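User: Can you help me understand a structure? I only have the sequence.
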Amino acid sequence: MGELLHVPFRADFLREVAHHVVTYSPETRSKVRVLLPHRRACRRLREILITESGAQILPRIFPLGELDAAEFALSEGGLALLPEVSSQTRRLLFAWLLKSARASDNAPGTIEQDSKFAHSLGQAIDRLQEFECSLDDLSVPENADYAAHWARAARFLEIVQHFWPNWCAEHQRLDPIARRNVALRAFAQQLGDDPVLIAGSSGRAVAVQHLMQAVLQTPQGKVFLHGTEILGSDVDIDLVMRTPSHPGFALVRLTAVLSQMPPSEPPLQPSSEMEFYRAVFRASGQSVTQGAVPLNVHAVVLPDRTSEIATTALLVREAFASDPESGVAVITQDTDFVDSLERWLLRWNIAVDRVAGQLLPRMAEGRLARLILEIWREGLNVVRLLAVLKHPLVRLGMARGMVWHRVARLEAAYLEGYDARSVERIFAKLDQEELAWLKPLKFLYKKPKNQTFSEFYILWESTYVLLCRDEESAVPDSRAAETLTNWWQSLSDSAAYLPKQSFSVADFVGLVVPMLETVRVPPPPRAMYAVTVLSAMEARLMRFDRVIVPMMNYGVLPASLAPEPWLTRQHYRDCGMPPPEETVGLAAHDFLELCHQPEVFLLRAEKIGDEVVATSSWWERFDAVYRFCVGRSMVDPAQNKLWQARLQALLQPSNNASPGRPTPRPPLAVRPKILRVTEVNALFLNPYDIYARRILRLESRPVRASETFAQRRGILFHQLVQDYVAAKPNGTIAE
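Assistant: Let's start by predicting it. Here is the structure, written out as tokens:
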């Protein structure tokens, strides 16, 4: 029989797994298979085995959530898995189906809403299949007294129940989760006498639970569970099972399925700090027990969001200043917060390693692709014309400097005192030599006619390439451009399954814009000094020297449950699925793991702008238990004032006298009477720029590129060495 092992929160989980792996002989170790939750954990386990354990022969390590049939050699068992249908294809088909159903019922709505509802329907199917259910298991009662939305959703579910299985059978495709379930069950049937280790999985999916049961039936199988000390002998299991948001809820379900409770030897009993955390995340009606407070957790309250971002940057810089090799992580999924944090850290040459990548619409390539769609739908006016011409990627077959020069002449000649017909007059004169360079924009000026989805996609991509092509007939290459090209290719593959019917411009834009907003660009290679930004789930099993958890506000940690437009709670009960609050319990379990890192900082802001924001429920529980154990708040007033003082010193250094705000007062006679269109915004944001150029007649200083400066610096250095050697033939450079 296999073995069920428990690793406490305070231990480094992957190092414990590595210690078990190195106990196997080199001959056996090559046959060991280790299944971990994600690829980051796989990479770290390999690093530990190589650098710390000195293992020359490594086991086969796979991510449990990203299985591939080839990795398990399922073909040897005679299993041929059908290819999976991409989530993008499924979303396009459901959106088209929703649009058709809405049109037949004369129901209100937009194509953008159809696209978003289609995405949520795909997520609902994945959630059902995670528990090995399907749409056929959903009961749709006839003539039910539903609200208008639920009535339409019920009618549409009846359509999908017939359409989607038939479509998958006709095209020989499987949903991603269904395909993973088949692979997991096939792998469970092929288990032999070779060691198999499953570590760190929550066991939420039914197929994963079945694999764990099969592994425990093998002679050398091992299943590692993390943090089961949250379920001590004094914990009421029935009370936990009635509280899905409890961090031990998923563990109780899993151990019940495995028919084995985790071992409870004395060394694995909860520590005094664990008693504190158990009191924080206790179920409703459970008493608070006295326990020692965790000394590694620090809480800081900042006045506003800007101060919170700046303090996070200071915490990161302090960690790297004390130890350049330290690992620092910021736990957040807010893109705006990370963007602001990145601007702070760039001044100290600290990079931000976004584990999930950057959203494509926030990058130059994504902004240009979306701008093309916006012009098609809304039309080309002066503002959008200048937005295209001044975009950093637009070349129009010329060098970028030439484009800037011609745009300046275009503004001076045609766009001073512009009106609604300025663009029309410009494109009426494209035959003139001075405006011939604008001919590639005719695809933007003329609104496309109704055509098929594939034709729209081809026109979209060709317009983008035409705008970006430079004088050497090349498109600027970047990681974002590669991601956009791959996404367009997948969009083309998905469009092949759509009916051959005409789409309007508004329908095409409404379909693809919500999909474009979710595309992410993979992160670049990690820099020497980089802070890792990831979510609590992505940080599972990872180890960092300092963890910073900002935005401890209501609705952020824990995240509010998203509205479910397709599945009711009755559906959850009928299919035997745990309630939606289980995701909060899993997040609480991951948060407990974070709190056991060597050093943890919890941050929250009292206000965002002029609005007072509520405190996170977890923060309030921490503070309440802290007051019970110590008699005071967990926010140390001295430490809180120290960080605020450091922040004020950074924002307003006292040792640098301020030169004061410039107050130019030019005579009325020399002040400009007429401004260009592009200077109106500068008048409000930076009026001194207009003062310097229009009144003082100063020219902008050319920016010296770093490559040019390095080249000139090298030439100067070699010239100095040559002059020194010529002056002192017998001397040495060291002198």
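Now, to help you interpret it: Residues 213 and 657 are 70 Å apart (CA to CA). The longest helix spans residues 148-171. Let me know which part you'd like to focus on.
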